[in-house]
Amino acid sequence: MGMRTLRRRIAELVGKVNGRMGVAVHDTATGEEIGVAQDDLFPMASVCKTPILVTAYRQVDAGRLSLDERLEITDATRVAGSGLLNFFDTGLRPTLRDLLLLMIVVSDNAATDLILNAVGGPEQVTREMRHLGLTNIRLDRNIAGLLKDIHVAIDPVAADLDFHGLRSLLETDDDLATRFRDADRGFEAVREATAGRDVASPADIARLYVQAARGECAGSESCEAILKTLERQQLRGRLPRNLPPNTRCCHKTGTLGNGNVTNDTGLIYIGERAVAVAVLSREVRQDPAATNTVIARIGRMAYDELQ
């Protein structure tokens, strides 16, 4: 029992995935790390919101940002994909604290891009990761830019359309809507748009969570706030799904396409002991529910082998 057995069991499970999957497990109590393709680079998708969260709190600690600062929702701040702010009225002015919560617990893309702009953009997030010694985490675009590149790869007409224009055209152009629903076209678009950009290794993502658990990636109070935010995550069908009731899990998911990228990363607590688990994937061609099940089984394996 232990890390060696855990690695073997994870390797057997990951080997059955129709696609590429990397896994890293890091025990904060012992410092021991194991993994499968843990140093390979994978698209983060919305897992990038954890490095953004850490960056925001590091800037709060440095006095460059305030959690009480208010940012306005306008038509221009709306971003395709997950979240709630797209459905709110313009003129709303949530605090940075509110936006950080929305970014994590419902993976709100509009909130994410507002925060990214406030912290200095994707390049600043990458710089902060370098300061933490995490050389295999890089952010190149905001969420709107990532999704725009995927949409353009599906059909170049998207290049000249903003959020509102594309949504309107998809509602009226049946041929375009059919192209956007085509699974093969979507698979290739995600692969093309994510090649070499907005990527991370499972090992470095796991190490970022270890730093948060140890109070090392920001000030101690900020690290605790980071963990509490991640613990409020509402998308719980992956890593925490099979854990015993009331098991603490602080995590962030990520998805692109029809499950072509399906990720979950975070901390699983065995009593007071935190274990970082990072599961990243790319070029996955299978039912997303099946991939979710694989990730849920990895979470439970880590819990069972290390308790």
Structure in words:
- The protein is an alpha+beta fold.
- It has helices at 3-14, 49-61, 96-105, 109-119, 122-131, 143-154, 163-172, 174-181, 183-194, 202-213, 220-231, 288-306, and strands spanning 20-27, 33-36, 42-43, 199-200, 249-256, 261-270, 273-282.
- The chain has a single domain, classed as Beta-lactamase.
- Helix 6 (143-154) crosses helix 9.
- The strands form two sheets. A five-stranded antiparallel sheet has the order 2-1-7-6-5. It has a two-stranded antiparallel sheet with strand order 3-4.
- It is built from twelve helices and seven strands.
- The N and C termini lie close together (10 Å).
- It is globular.
Jot down its keywords.
307 residues, alpha+beta, Beta-lactamase, five-stranded antiparallel sheet, globular
Report the C-alpha radius of gyration, rounded: 19 Å
**Count of β-strands:** 7
Q: What would you call the shape?
A: globular
Strand content: 5-15%
The CATH class designation is: Alpha Beta
What percent of the residues sit in helical stretches (DSSP H or I)? 40-55%
CATH architecture: 3-Layer(aba) Sandwich
Series of H and E elements: HEEEHHHHHHHHEHHEEEH
Number of domains: 1
Strand order in space, largest sheet: 2-1-7-6-5
Give me the secondary-structure topology.
Blueprint lengths: L2 H12 L5 E8 L5 E4 L5 E2 L5 H13 L34 H10 L3 H11 L2 H10 L11 H12 L8 H10 L1 H8 L1 H12 L4 E2 L1 H12 L6 H12 L17 E8 L4 E10 L2 E10 L5 H19 L1
Antiparallel strand pairs: 1-2, 1-7, 3-4, 5-6, 6-7
Quick recap:
The chain is an alpha+beta fold and 307 residues long.
